[in-house]
Amino acid sequence: MSLRFRVLGSGSGGNATLVEGGGARVLLDAGLGPRQLAERLVSAGVDPASLDAVLVSHEHGDHARGAAAFSAKWGVPLSGTRGTFEAAGFARAPLPAFEAIAPGETRTLRRLSVRAVAVPHDAASPLAFVLSAGASSLGHATDLGHLSRGLVEALRPCDALLVESNYDPAMLRDGPYPWSLKERILGPFGHLSNGDVGRLLEKGLSGVCRLVVLAHLSQKNNHPELALQAAEEALDRGGRRGVRVALAPPEGTGWIAVRAGGAAVGRREGQLRLF
Ligand SMILES: [Zn+2]
Ligand SMILES: [Zn+2]
Prior knowledge:
Blueprint: E1 3-9, E2 16-21, E3 24-28, H1 34-43, E4 53-55, H2 61-64, H3 67-74, E5 78-80, H4 82-87, E6 98-100, E7 106-109, E8 112-118, E9 127-133, E10 136-141, H5 149-155, E11 160-164, H6 169-174, H7 179-186, H8 194-203, E12 211-215, H9 224-237, E13 244-247, E14 256-259, E15 262-265, H10 267-272
Parallel strand pairs: 3-4, 4-5, 5-6, 10-11, 11-12, 12-13
Antiparallel strand pairs: 1-2, 1-14, 2-3, 7-8, 8-9, 9-10, 14-15
Helix pairs in contact: 1-3, 8-9
This protein binds zinc ion (ZN) (2 copies).
């Protein structure tokens, strides 16, 4: 049973990842407008109405902006925590269905299992997701301030990870943001730095992980080269030279296959490593 994913958008301009496996298709986050989401799905060869669910990690606009309108237009059930439902104002939208999922809970859509994992972030009840089909699993974690034990344990058995590598601390400190926002991003409920991801890659991976996709890079406070370098150095320190690192650019990626005990990256992602 195959599992594959495709980033449709990454970063402050809007996040969304399409995951296909176990006969199901789900969208993780819908931070792009509904029309743009539909266009990017169609260019991936996917009919928007064929999705089984839109799972929203938390209420921030870059993750939830298009969720309600997309769900209503295409008749796709929306899912997330009760806290996200309230904070995002989903009650006001004419949704076809809302299915609440609690942190720690696992849902099965056809033969795709989706586990919700609580993450530390300044939102009502934010989540990361672990998706499994057959023996393959993908961990998907964006927007978190630090690596909580529960999250690291949930990600450890995954064959592939998509994780945010939001900022380089020096670029953030010297950058244009007001100090209050810098403090928020740096804080325990903000975002992961390149170094935080490095610690995860050095010490937190099991032997089965073969691919790490770095996502949600800040365009003002990070540079793709810095994020890649930090991740590759951490993998070297951890003796994990068999793990491939790719970047999710703002406009998304091609399809990425996840295999049990390893993952294959398409040609387009391989080329992304060069910039
Ligand atoms: Zn975000
Ligand atoms: Zn957020």
